[in-house]
Amino acid sequence: MFGASGSGTSTLGRALADALASQHFDTDDFVWTPSDPPFQCKRPETERLTLMENLFLPRRDWVLSGALDNWGDAVAARLTLAVRLTLDPDIRRARLEMRQAQRCGCAQEWGKPLCPSCQAFLSWTDAYEQSDHPGPTLAKHVAWAKTLPCPVIVLDSQSPVPRTVEHVMEALDHLVPVA
User: Fold this and answer.
1) pTM for this entry
2) Which of 27, 50, 74, 176 would suit a FRET pair with 56, their CA atoms being 20 to 30 Å apart?
3) Rounded to whole angstroms, how far apart are CA atoms 128 and 138?
4) CB distance 53 to 61 below 8 Å
């Protein structure tokens, strides 16, 4: 699962792993070293890949959320199906505002402004639809999806999570040959 921050990739990844009786992993857990506050220091790419190889890549099945573009070709080569999630930017922004307020605790009361750090993160994520943004962008994700050695489906994550899981399961069913 990959898409803009706040599009529901981690939520769908966990739900799909549950439906498949598998395990869910998120690229953020491999990209970033543990810290408080989180997301302060990136791991070197070789360390990320080594961790993935040790934790889940040798397993028969797993669900991964988060993009691997620009660093995870070795993992991408093992994908069976990729799912790019889309979401209206205004809905995504509202989700992110609520998530940041909960994570940071900076806006305990409705309508209270988020702290400068959360505001900076939201500004960064707002640029996803701009092709000149240095971070993840829609254009980069679309281009990366074209390089994947597996089928890619695009789903709108505004649908309820159980329905989105059904769509992914249907796509997986079409990939598995009937014995």
Assistant:
1) 0.89
2) 176
3) 6
4) no
